[in-house]
Amino acid sequence: MKQKIIIIEAVILHVYIRKILIFNIQKMSQEADEGRIELIVGPMFSGKSTRLIGVIRKFTYKAKKTIMVKYFADKRFTEKSEVVTHDLLKYDSIECKNLREHFDKLKNYDIIGIDEGQFFPDLVEVCEELALMKKTVIIAALNGDFRMEPFPVIAKIIPKADKIKLLKAYCFNCHKDARFTLRIVQSNETVLIGAGEAYKPACRECHIHFSKEREKGNLNIDEILKDRKEKEVHSDDNITPVKEKDKDRDEKDSKDLSSSSAETSPLPAKREEQVF
Q1: Which string of DSSP letters, residue by residue, matches the chain?
Q2: Residue in 31, 79, 116, 273 annotated catalytic
Q3: Which of 5, 61, 148, 196 is most exposed, with the fewest beta carbons within 10 Å of its own?
Q4: pLDDT tens string 154-171
Q5: What distances in angstroms separate CA 22 from CA 17, 28, 163, 165, 240, one per listed residue?
Q6: For residue 97, which phi and psi values (nearest 5 degrees)?
Q7: Structurally, how many domains does the chain consist of?
Q8: Cα separation of 182 and 44, whole Å?
Q9: What is the pLDDT, as a whole number, of residue 274?
Q10: Is 197 a catalytic residue?
């Protein structure tokens, strides 16, 4: 009888999951047929490219024609025409300086992914044209530059987007939520392509503080990370493991109970541990 109940529950769960998957796929297909502009924005190291690759791959379930575009000067992890994340996840792509260069090719696809969208000067007009042709354009881009200032093309495309996803990272210094990109090298160029050697994710307080230090020429990121690691080690040394605390407390309880056992009703010598 129990086996029959388990089988019935498994079948119901399978049908339920199948319906959810079909519904999500149909919804994605309907949205793709309408023509859309979607934005995935956030600071560096927040997983924008990873999310973009994941979304593009999902559309393959409905046999949609997909294509990925990367900025021609982005050679941080590879010389090949492919989008590569900080975790070295790869996805084949085409590359260009202006999206118009490949417009005739892009309009033959249902789903167009654009990585590092802030670098394309013609992003807004090309994406609008593709959306009017009932294409779905998904853009991964920085939410701001190292000064916390907006990239003009991203600021212009936000009002035209059907969907915006804001991602966050963790601050390199204090581990709080990081929504900003801190430049750690001595350069004031707006476009400076780099990875961990040039940028760190930061919370508001740390971004403002370390940006001032960088402008003074006092920013030594290696020393900051070293000091933080030493503080974490010292902090861990001062923490008494939970099991040791429980043991000490139990021994104290045991002594107290033993000393008072003659005057009170019988009690166990050691408190039993409760498991929840």
Answers
A1: -HHHHHHHHHHHHHHHHHHHHHHHHHHHHHHHHH-EEEEEEESTTSSHHHHHHHHHHHGGGGT--EEEEEETT--SS-SSSEEE-TT--EEE-EEESSGGGGHHHHTT-SEEEESSGGG-TTHHHHHHHHHHTT-EEEEEEESS-TTSPPPHHHHHHGGG-SEEEE--EE-TTT-SEE-EEEE-SS---S----STTTEEEE-HHHHHHHHHHHHHT---HHHHHHHHHHHHHHHHHTPPPHHHHHHHHHHHHHHHHHHHTTTSS---SSPPPP--
A2: 116
A3: 5
A4: 999 999 999 999 999 999
A5: 9, 10, 22, 23, 51
A6: -95, -35
A7: 1
A8: 9
A9: 33
A10: no
**Within a domain: 173:** no
Would residue 61 count as lying in a domain? yes
Residue 71 lies in a domain: yes
Give me the long-range contacts of 220-223 (CB less than 8 A, separation at least 24): 221/184
Q: How confident is the model at residue 137 (pLDDT cuts 50, 70, 90)?
A: very high
Locate 29 and state its tokens.
Answer: 């297909």
- Whether 235 is in a domain gets the answer no
Give me the CATH number covering residue 133: 3.40.50.300
